[in-house]
Q: What sequence folds into this?
């Protein structure tokens, strides 16, 4: 095997295998398992004898995370006709649903998740590359194996409305809950009207969300076979050129597209070892322009999040020292695993590909195919991450290739 692990052609071959040969990879479905065995075999070929599997059960589309709370709040709303005790219960269910949607929108754990039916088995894959000498740092590189559905709400003409629609989706059950409680406490006509308007809003949300579930899953070449390819390339390189003082973990997470469930599983299992770790998440890096995200919009106006300051400074410094890579910082409309990390007080930074229009390229569209991936971008993202690792590892370790 060639030792040019980070060459664009080698990285593109991984994307092709995952997105073309295997194709769409719904989490918990056989195709995602095929992708995971591709990753495991590639890692074994690279010399990793231990590939850890971290199994868990999950739901296979984010529709559960958005439809369940709206359905619960609307069903509860019928209790409002039973007088004050019914209104209290309805109010509580609606507020819980609103809280759930708020948390889901920022990639945090979802209180209603135990209610979802049809859970499926999947797993994270994890390998560790120990430092050659005394370990001073630990860095986790992250890329998810699953792919999302084609969604009308992400179509080029529609996507600008995502933050507005998701904000309303969070606001309706919260307003409804407050209005139901106000009615129980003897509130006047305003409470009645707010309750009706918010119930109508939830009904419209429910219709849109159900319609958005009807298309098939996308090949996920950019999202996120490119990330898996970057991790495999870096794995090959680092296996042969381990860092002096930095232990590197490669985390191939499942179930990102349904609410970052794989990342939460990783933190549940190993969070106690990762309090001081740095996380670099790769998202959709098959674009000419590569950036580190300085501010993540998430999906609503209320749920934006940021990388930690230290990671941001680290990326800025690396970008300054490596102008040849042309990587810059910028805010993005995106929600991903750094949201899960930051919500639980871990560090986290996202490397991202920026499409021609400034959005994620072919985001949740059937056009997310291998033919539309810019392999040079994957190489640049991987080389930037390597430059960050070398920067962190210190001046004694002058890796180059
Ligand atoms: Zn993704």
A:
């Amino acid at each position: 095997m060639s030792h040019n692990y980070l060459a664009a052609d080698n990285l593109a071959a991984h994307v092709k295998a995952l997105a073309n040969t295997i194709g769409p990879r719904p989490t918990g479905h056989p195709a995602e398992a095929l992708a995971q065995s591709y990753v495991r075999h590639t890692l074994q070929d690279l010399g990793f004898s231990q590939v850890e599997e971290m199994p868990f059960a999950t739901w296979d589309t984010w529709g559960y995370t958005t439809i369940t709370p709206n359905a619960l709040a609307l069903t509860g709303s019928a209790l409002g006709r039973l007088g004050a005790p019914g209104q209290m219960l309805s109010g509580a269910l609606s507020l819980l649903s609103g809280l759930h949607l708020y948390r889901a929108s920022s990639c945090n754990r979802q209180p209603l998740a135990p209610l979802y039916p049809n859970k499926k088995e999947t797993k994270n894959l994890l390998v560790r590359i120990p430092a050659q000498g005394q370990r001073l740092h630990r860095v986790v590189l992250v890329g998810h194996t699953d792919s999302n559905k084609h969604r009308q709400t992400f179509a080029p003409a529609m996507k600008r409305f995502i933050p507005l629609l998701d904000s309303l989706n969070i606001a309706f059950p919260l307003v409804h809950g407050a209005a139901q409680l106000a009615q129980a406490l003897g509130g006047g006509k305003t409470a009645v009207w707010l309750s009706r308007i918010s119930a109508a809003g939830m009904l419209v949300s429910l219709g849109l969300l159900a319609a958005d579930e009807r298309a098939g899953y996308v090949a996920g070449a950019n999202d996120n076979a490119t990330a898996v390819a970057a991790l495999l390339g870096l794995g090959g390189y680092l296996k042969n050129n381990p860092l002096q003082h930095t232990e590197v973990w490669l985390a191939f997470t499942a179930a990102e597209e349904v609410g970052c469930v794989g990342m939460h599983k990783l933190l549940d299992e190993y969070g106690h070892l990762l309090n001081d770790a740095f996380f670099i998440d790769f998202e959709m890096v098959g674009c000419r322009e590569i950036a580190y995200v300085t501010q993540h919009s998430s999906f609503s106006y209320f749920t934006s999040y940021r990388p930690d300051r230290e990671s941001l400074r680290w990326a800025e410094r690396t970008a300054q020292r490596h102008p040849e890579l042309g990587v810059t910082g910028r805010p993005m409309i995106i929600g991903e695993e750094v949201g899960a990390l930051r919500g639980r007080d871990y560090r986290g930074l996202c490397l991202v590909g920026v499409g021609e229009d400034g959005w994620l390229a072919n985001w949740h569209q059937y056009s997310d195919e291998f033919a539309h991936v810019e392999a040079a971008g994957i190489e640049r993202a991987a080389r930037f991450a390597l430059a960050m690792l070398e920067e962190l590892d210190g001046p004694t370790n002058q890796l180059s290739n």
About this structure: The two ends are 16 Å apart (CA to CA).
